[in-house]
Structure formats: structure tokens, C-alpha cells
């Protein structure tokens, strides 16, 4: 540790102003401009190269990282006066060659160990391509499925978001400084700090109106968890929060992130975000933007070269204190040293087992998919079933991978049809490549169950891909109704990237599996769930509304003054005259092919003094969960609290613990949770975190409607 700080100061003392600004500059890697790039590198005029040619990395052709050229460029950097290597960054979001489920789906697995393992593998694959640094995890808690980028985040809950943050950061980076340095690990980037997920109306890049209270209690925790897990970098977000353009916000970047949370890595701006301060009405021109961003606490300038063009001038004019530049350089060098970029500057092949990674991707997909409905136990289907397989996703391949998959291998993806036919040869599948009504009728005549493969293209999700309507698309609604008229029982597989309002089709379906865009192995995982080889265990990380007009709809608002206008968990909240106040399916919800019964909730020490809580004492709460069905299964046991009377209004339910356990049929497991200082407090009016005196309701169960409860008291 000390060695790193000493080395930073040694380097800093030898650097010219130009070399310092070089470190703060991230340029775009363009194979065609290699000679020019080498020139920059040789003169120490670049700190990083971004391997990607557009901000819409998810769906526009991207140049593959070309290791040969990357090494040539790196050699030029190593030949520079001080030999400081470039750090290569790329958007490695949910897999690299092997694609894992979209992060919103990953969160729905409620399985932190599996998530971590998946990101370990992702880091190996990306390191094999010479990448040092990824722009992930995206930790924007969001309550708005209209926002196309909700697919990239952990869903709507700050606690789940924090657990996911830790898994992904340690998955990418390793668990300690020794591991950070190893070649197969990547430096991570918690993004987009902060409030991007709250953009009004789900409009991308739009303003977010967030009080300090909500910012700290809902939007900050996942970033805090990332910082506490040692995340190397943080990306400032494009948006503004209550008048603060984040990229230039001293309060958000310096006071809150760096000072209060103790973040000692570097902040990189988002693509072009420095010059965009002009568009946001904060800066008069690019020079002014560079001044505001650097002084605000943005350390590295992604892509737009405002720092490169103007920081020297600004420093000479005294408008940017040299101490601010030095501080930014320190942070960048610290991460380069901490992550051993000198040692892993040039690429080296990593011998990883691709088959193992695909296998993990399948297991991950299985754990993410959510069984929402299973009337009359229509699922799993029999292995000699006759199914009519209909709908827009039957032959989809690329879309199963989801957005933000720059290096994916679409050729290795099987379609839902292919997976069923190859894994279940005894099943009769009536299907056709030709979507016609006549075809559909004749197929349905023959079959005993209709499987509707519904979904959306990955091009409807991701950056800049918001939707005004998130109800099931009209043509799919019609398809469901026409098929229903023919009288056969129907199930739907919902391959969407975001929560979709399915009120219009839900009554027609006996079974529903929400598959998400679950990566390379979406179809094989789904086939095994459909036919019962795998028992589904996913739980929703984001509320599924009934219709668009209910948004935002989330499980953890404060209690309202009048019950009928309140929490979506009330038996019959009358928020609207034209639609129920309840969601279609609530947060934390998901069925299994077996059933679980909760009993014997016990609380050790129902009362603990505040003093003791502040000193680390905890309430121990445990519950017995019994698998009462006919098959083994996994259940995510969830613990919610409600701070009954407090100095600020508190959420009616807050997730504060979960454990995913495998329970064999007929057996029981006792699951224990501990609640203490970190779980019971909140940031109050004075922006300070405190636990308050009083009673807390606690609830344990299999989703946010959990009703087995008790009371604990902090006295
Ligand atoms: C996105 C970031 C991404 C960056 C680099 C931006 O448009 O908002 O999430 O990391 O581009 O590709």
C-alpha cells in the first residue's frame, strides 16, 4: 500500500504538465489510426484507450479489440519518457464471448455466489482479449421499466443492489490487492453515479429530481457497497440530479463519493459528458466545461478531449489549481499500480475453459428465470407432449443475448425451437418458420398445449432505447387472443429485457415463465425448465406492473396518509378507477414446481438497547422453511423490515436479508438472519445515518408480501 503511494509521488514529481494531462485523457481506439495513436502514447499524451467506437456499444457494429495493434500501441506507451502504461477499457457488461443473463435477470437469481462466479469467468475472457478495465457494474436502481437501461442494473431495491454490487465488483476484480494484480482480473467501474435510473419518464439522459433523503437511502447504497468492496473506478452519470450536473458536481463527486464514502480510485466521465455540460447549461464552451468537470472531481475525461485541449491553459491561468490536476493523476496512477497494469500491459493468452463458461451461463440462466403462473400445474410439460410453438421469439437468436454484448458469439446460440427439439426428441413440436394464421390454426388443432414464445428484440432495450408503452406489444396480445380462441391450454415464455405490463394477456395463460434476455444459454435453460429437468427458482428483482400507467410502481415507498391510496401490497389499494393498485407480480415473487411453507419464526432478544445496536449487537431471526411438494427445489427466503414510527417517513417494507437455499422434497431448513446497525438505520434530515429508537415490524417469506411476522424493539 505504502509502496504504491510512494511510487505515485515519485512519478508525479517527474511528470510535466502535459504528461499529467495525458494521464487524465481517455482516447478512442481506432485501428485505422494506429500511427497517430502511437504518437500520442509515445509522448505520454494518453492515459487510457477505450476499445469501442460508439457510445451505443450495444447495437452498432463494434471493432473487435485487436490484440496485435493494442500491443503495438502499448509498446509505444512503455517507450514514453516515464513508461506509464495505458489502461485499456471496454464495456464488458454481462459476459464477454460467453454471455450471461442481462444484469436485471442476474439480480433475479438472488444468488450472489453464482453472480460472482459468472463475473470471474467474464473477467478471464476479457483479460484474454487484452482488456484491463470494464465499465461495469451498472448500479442504477430504477423503478421505471420504460427506461431502456433498466436491463443493465440490479432492479429496484437498494439492498439487493448492494449485494449484487459486491458480487460483481469482487467477481471482476478479485477479493484483495494480490488478486487485483493477477492477469485474469479486471478493474471494475461502478456506474452511472448517480441517479441516472431515476430519469423522469424513463427518458434516457433526462433530469432526475431526487431529494438528499432519497438519494442517500435509495440510490447511494449500491455505490457505497461497490466502494466498500474496493471498486477501482466510478463513472459519473450523464444526467443532472436536482440541478447538479453530476460530471461537474463537487458535492456529489468530491464531498459525497470521495470524502464521505472514502473512494480512493478515479472517476471517469461518461462518453462526451464533459462537453455536454454546455448542452446542460452549465458551461459556456469546451474550455469552461473542462474547468468545471476537473474542479468538480471528474478525474479522467472519456472521449471528448476537453481536458487535453484546455487543461494546460486553464492551469496556467490559475482557473484549475495544479493540486486538482495532481490529485486526479494520483488517483489514476493508484489504480494502474494497484491493478498491476505495468505487469499486464502487454497481452498474454489466458487458458480458459469455454465449455465450463457456457455451462455456468446455462446454470445462471436457469436461476434467473421466473415462474410467474402455473395454474393446474400445467408446467412442467410432459416429455412426450405435443406442443404448438408459436410467436416472435421461436427462432430468435441474437435477441436472446440481450443488449450490451459487444463480443458475443451469436453463432453458438440456439433458438428456443432448436433447444427443445434437440434436448427433448420425444416431444412433438408443431412449429413453422412461416408465421401465418392458417399455419397457427392447423398447429393448434394438432397439439395438446400451446407454447407462446413472446418477447422483445434486444434492440428495444439498452441505451437510448426507452419505451413510452411497456405493455405487451399489440400484435402479441392479438396472437394470444387468437390462439386462446382455439381452446387449448396455453403457456407463455416471456423473453423481454425489462418488466412488461401483461394485464391484457395474463388471464388467457395457464403458465408463464419470464425468461428475460438470459444470454448464450437462454434457450437450453428454458427448455429444461419447460420440461421439468430444472426446477425454476428466480424471483423478480423489479416489480411487474399491470399496465404502463402504473409506473412508477415499486414495493418500498413510505406508507401513505390514506390507506386506499397507498402501498401496492394492501389487499385492495384503489389508486386508480380503471386499474387495480396492485402490480401484476410483486417484487421478490417467483414460483417453483414445488411449494414451500414458512413456520416457527423465532426472534432471539426481542429488545436490544440502541447503545448495543450501535456497538454491533444484532437481532437474530430465524424461520423454518419446509418443501411441501414432490420435487427438490430452491427457495429465496426473504426478510423485510418496517420502521414503524420514525423521524422521517419510512418504507412500508424494506428487504434487509435473503438466503437462497436448496431444500429436498419433504425436508425443512432453518434459515437465520441478523439485523443490526447496518440494516435498521437510515439517512435522516441531517444526512446522517442513524438507527432510531422504537419498534420494527419484521416479515419473512417468499416475496415482498411476506406475512409471517413479528416485532423487534430498539429501546
Ligand atoms: C454509456 C456508458 C458506457 C460508455 C462507453 C456511454 O454512452 O452511457 O455506460 O460505458 O458509453 O461505451
Write a structural description:
The protein is an alpha/beta fold and 715 residues long. It has 3 domains: 90-340, TIM Barrel (Alpha-Beta Barrel), CATH 3.20.20; 359-549, 3-Layer(aba) Sandwich (Rossmann fold); 594-714, Immunoglobulin-like (Sandwich). The chain is 31% helix and 18% strand. Helix 16 (354-368) crosses helix 21 (522-530). The longest helix is centred in the N-terminal third of the chain and has 17 residues, at 112-128. It is globular, with a radius of gyration of 26 Å. It starts with a helix and ends with a strand. Bound molecules: beta-D-glucopyranose (BGC). Beta-D-glucopyranose binds at residues 52, 55, 57, 91, 135, 191, 270-271, 463.
How many individual domains?
3
**Percentage of residues in DSSP E strands:** 15-25%
Classify the oligomer.
single chain
Rg: 26 Å
Query: What shape does the CA trace take?
Result: globular
Secondary structure topology:
Elements: H1 2-14, H2 17-23, E1 25-28, H3 34-42, E2 48-50, H4 67-78, E3 87-90, H5 103-108, H6 112-128, E4 133-134, H7 158-173, H8 177-181, E5 189-193, H9 212-219, H10 221-228, E6 233-236, E7 240-241, E8 244-245, H11 250-260, E9 266-268, H12 276-279, H13 286-296, E10 301-302, H14 306-316, H15 322-338, H16 354-368, E11 370-374, E12 386-390, H17 398-401, H18 416-423, E13 428-430, H19 437-446, E14 449-455, H20 474-484, E15 490-495, E16 511-514, H21 522-530, E17 596-604, E18 607-608, H22 610-614, E19 619-627, E20 633-643, E21 654-663, E22 668-675, H23 677-680, E23 682-683, E24 689-690, E25 694-701, E26 708-714
Parallel strand pairs: 1-2, 1-10, 2-3, 3-4, 5-6, 6-9, 12-13, 12-14, 14-15, 15-16, 18-26
Antiparallel strand pairs: 7-8, 11-16, 17-19, 19-22, 20-21, 20-25, 23-24, 25-26
Helix pairs in contact: 1-15, 2-14, 3-4, 6-7, 6-16, 7-10, 13-14, 16-21, 18-21
The chain binds beta-D-glucopyranose (BGC).
Beta-D-glucopyranose is lined by residues 52, 55, 57, 91, 135, 191, 270-271, 463.
Amino acid at each position: 500500500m505504502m509502496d504504491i503511494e510512494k511510487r505515485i509521488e515519485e512519478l508525479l514529481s517527474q511528470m510535466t504538465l502535459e504528461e499529467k494531462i495525458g494521464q487524465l485523457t481517455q482516447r478512442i481506439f481506432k485501428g485505422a489510426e494506429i500511427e497517430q495513436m502511437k504518437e500520442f502514447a509515445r509522448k505520454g499524451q494518453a492515459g487510457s484507450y477505450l476499445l469501442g467506437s460508439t457510445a451505443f456499444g450495444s447495437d452498432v457494429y463494434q471493432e473487435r479489440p485487436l490484440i496485435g495493434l493494442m500491443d503495438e500501441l502499448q509498446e509505444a506507451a512503455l517507450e514514453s519518457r516515464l513508461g506509464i502504461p495505458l489502461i485499456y477499457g471496454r464495456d464488458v457488461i454481462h459476459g464477454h464471448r460467453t454471455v450471461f443473463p442481462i444484469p436485471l435477470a442476474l439480480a433475479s437469481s438472488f444468488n450472489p455466489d453464482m453472480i460472482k462466479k459468472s463475473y470471474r469467468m467474464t473477467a478471464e475472457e476479457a483479460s484474454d482479449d487484452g482488456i484491463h478495465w470494464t465499465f461495469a457494474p451498472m448500479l442504477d436502481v430504477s423503478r421505471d421499466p420504460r427506461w431502456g437501461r433498466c436491463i443493465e442494473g440490479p432492479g429496484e431495491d437498494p439492498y439487493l443492489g448492494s449485494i449484487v454490487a459486491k458480487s460483481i465488483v469482487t467477481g471482476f476484480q478479485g477479493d484483495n490487492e494480490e488478486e487485483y494484480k493477477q492477469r485474469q482480473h479486471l478493474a471494475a467501474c461502478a456506474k452511472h453515479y448517480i441517479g441516472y435510473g431515476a430519469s423522469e419518464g424513463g427518458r434516457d439522459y433526462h433530469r432526475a429530481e431526487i431529494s438528499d433523503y432519497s438519494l442517500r437511502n435509495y440510490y447511494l447504497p449500491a455505490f457505497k457497497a461497490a466502494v466498500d468492496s474496493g471498486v477501482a473506478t466510478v463513472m459519473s452519470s450523464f444526467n443532472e440530479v436536482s440541478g447538479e450536473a453530476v460530471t461537474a458536481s463537487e458535492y456529489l463527486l468530491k464531498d459525497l463519493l470521495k470524502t464521505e464514502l472514502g473512494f480512493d480510485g478515479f472517476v471517469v466521465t461518461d462518453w462526451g459528458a464533459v462537453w455536454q455540460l454546455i448542452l446542460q447549461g452549465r458551461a459556456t464552451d469546451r474550455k469552461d466545461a473542462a474547468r468545471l468537470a476537473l474542479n468538480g472531481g471528474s478525474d479522467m475525461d472519456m472521449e471528448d478531449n476537453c481536458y487535453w485541449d484546455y487543461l494546460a491553459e486553464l492551469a496556467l491561468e490559475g482557473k484549475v489549481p495544479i493540486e486538482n490536476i495532481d490529485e486526479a493523476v494520483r488517483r489514476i496512477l493508484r489504480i494502474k499500480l494497484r491493478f498491476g497494469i505495468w505487469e499486464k500491459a502487454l497481452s498474454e493468452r489466458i487458458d480458459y475453459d469455454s465449455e465450463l463458461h457456457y455451462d455456468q451461463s446455462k446454470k445462471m440462466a436457469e436461476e434467473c428465470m421466473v415462474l410467474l403462473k402455473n395454474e393446474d400445474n400445467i408446467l412442467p410439460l410432459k416429455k412426450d407432449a405435443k406442443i404448438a410453438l408459436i410467436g416472435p421469439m421461436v427462432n430468435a437468436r441474437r435477441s436472446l443475448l440481450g443488449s450490451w454484448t459487444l463480443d458475443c458469439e451469436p453463432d453458438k446460440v440456439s433458438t428456443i425451437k432448436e433447444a427443445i427439439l434437440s434436448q427433448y426428441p420425444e416431444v412433438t413440436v408443431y412449429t413453422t418458420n412461416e408465421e401465418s394464421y392458417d399455419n397457427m390454426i392447423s398447429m393448434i388443432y394438432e397439439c395438446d398445449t400451446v407454447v407462446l414464445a413472446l418477447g422483445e428484440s434486444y434492440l428495444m432495450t439498452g441505451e437510448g432505447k426507452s419505451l413510452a408503452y411497456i405493455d405487451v406489444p399489440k400484435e402479441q396480445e392479438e396472437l394470444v387472443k387468437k390462439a386462446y380462441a382455439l381452446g387449448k391450454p396455453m403457456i407463455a415464455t416471456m423473453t423481454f429485457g425489462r418488466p412488461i405490463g401483461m394485464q391484457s394477456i395474463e388471464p388467457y395463460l395457464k403458465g408463464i415463465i419470464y425468461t428475460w434476455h438470459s444470454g448464450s444459454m437462454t434457450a437450453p435453460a428454458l427448455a429444461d425448465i419447460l420440461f421439468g429437468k430444472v426446477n425454476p427458482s428466480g424471483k423478480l428483482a423489479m416489480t411487474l406492473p399491470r399496465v404502463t400507467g402504473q409506473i412508477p410502481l415499486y414495493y418500498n415507498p413510505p406508507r401513505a396518509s390514506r390507506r386506499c391510496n397507498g402501498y401496492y401490497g394492501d389487499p385492495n389499494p384503489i389508486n386508480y378507477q380503471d386499474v387495480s393498485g396492485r402490480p401484476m407480480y410483486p417484487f421478490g415473487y417467483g414460483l417453483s414446481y414445488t411449494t414451500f411453507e414458512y413456520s416457527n419464526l423465532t426472534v432471539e432478544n426481542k429488545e436490544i438497547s440502541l447503545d448495543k445496536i450501535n456497538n454491533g449487537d444484532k437481532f437474530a431471526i430465524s424461520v423454518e422453511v419446509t418443501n411441501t411438494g414432490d420435487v427438490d427445489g430452491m427457495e429465496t427466503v426473504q426478510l423485510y423490515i418496517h420502521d414503524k414510527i420514525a423521524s422521517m417517513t419510512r418504507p412500508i417494507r424494506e428487504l434487509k436479508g435473503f438466503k437462497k437455499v436448496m431444500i429436498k422434497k419433504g425436508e425443512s431448513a432453518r434459515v437465520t438472519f441478523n439485523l443490526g446497525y447496518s440494516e435498521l438505520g437510515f439517512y435522516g434530515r441531517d444526512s446522517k445515518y442513524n438507527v432510531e429508537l422504537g419498534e420494527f415490524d419484521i416479515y419473512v417469506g417468499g416475496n415482498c408480501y411476506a406475512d409471517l411476522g413479528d416485532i423487534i424493539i430498539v429501546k
